[in-house]
Amino acid sequence: MASENRRVSLTAADVAIRVARKDLPWLAALPAQAAQQVLKQYHRAWLNCWAGRAGPPAFKARWRTRMSIDIPQGRDLAIQRITRTWGTVKVPKVGVVRFRWTRDLPVGKHADAANRVTGARLVKEANGWHVVLRLHTEVKEPAPHAGPGVGVDRGIAQPLALSDGTFREHGPWLKPGEEKRLRRLERKAARQRGAHHRGTPTSNRLRRTYDQIAGVRAKAKRRALDWQHKVTHCLAEEFGVVGVEDLNITGMVRSARGSVDIPGKNVKQKSGLNRAIAGQAWGRTVTLLEYKLADRGGHLVRVPAPNTSRRCSRCRVIAEGSRESQDRFVCKAPGCGYIANADTNAARNVEYLTKQEAPQDIVGARTWSPRRRAG
């Protein structure tokens, strides 16, 4: 196709994948347009890497990634609504498939040049196959959101603490019986792995156990995503500016195991904290909140994270021992003595930094923390 050190053009790569479809049966089984779409995404990833916008794309094995097939042309889908809750879509090499109709779609007489379905993606999840439809819709520029501003602190005990003194909480994602079943399935998988020899195919029993574990975890993920959508929707509706900490979550969940020469400390405790942080999905919460604020004319402001939990939000002083416990903050600075919930204090520090970081035309003409009470 080309020498190893030369950047390959999209045209040359397209010729290569046509040849590969003749040599690889599993690649030939895919629709040609789906393979070309994957190639375009791969080429775009390298363009972003060469331009310094992202790192190089990483290799993904077929059996270790979420299975998905792209249908890039919407005109071939032939979407029809057959009942109030069901519709049909035409999938290449499969035929007409029924799917659950969950929202209004611009199809039939409702479609035009400004509102139409441009493509789809078939995605295999733990609970079955899903179709994700891409829409082209023209929307008006939203009017500026006139709501108040607020600072938000993300945590473990309190998922979201607001600078107005309120919290956004949730319960466990799994019920006690589901937690018990998950632990039982994980023990069962461990026993089955013990009888599995390296280099031999995974047994059907072990594969079935893995599928059951994935189903339970997928249920927890759907509940978490549902809560995140609801709470970010409410925040975007109420507040015009939301400040959050610019956290390096990848660094926060890095293992503390260390190396052979320099072993880590408190590895088990750090592993538990990493699981708790990953379970809260802080990054996804901010991603959802950012686009929902933009749709409503609001703004998300990221502020530096250091010392927001150690600094007093009243006197702005960092005094040793002020955070007495996980949820109690008592300022030890002379003449202050401010008392507040530790997460609320951090959220108010985030609010203060948001006022300093954001442009004045965004943060100036609005109220902040409307229900805030002195500690």
Automatic annotation (TrEMBL):
Gene Ontology MF terms in the entry: DNA binding
Lineage of producing organism: Bacteria, Bacillati, Actinomycetota, Actinomycetes, Streptosporangiales
UniProt keyword Nuclease, yes or no: no
Protein's recorded name: Transposase
UniProt family annotation: In the C-terminal section; belongs to the transposase 35 family.
Any GO BP: DNA recombination
One of the Pfam families matching this protein, by short name: Cas12f1-like_TNB
Top-rank lineage group of the source organism: Bacteria
Keyword Nuclease attached: no
Alphabetized UniProt keyword annotations: DNA recombination, DNA-binding, Transposition
Probable transposase IS891/IS1136/IS1341 domain ranges (all copies): 137-255
Ranges of residues in domain Cas12f1-like TNB: 282-350
InterPro entries in the cross-refs: Cas12f1-like_TNB, Transposase
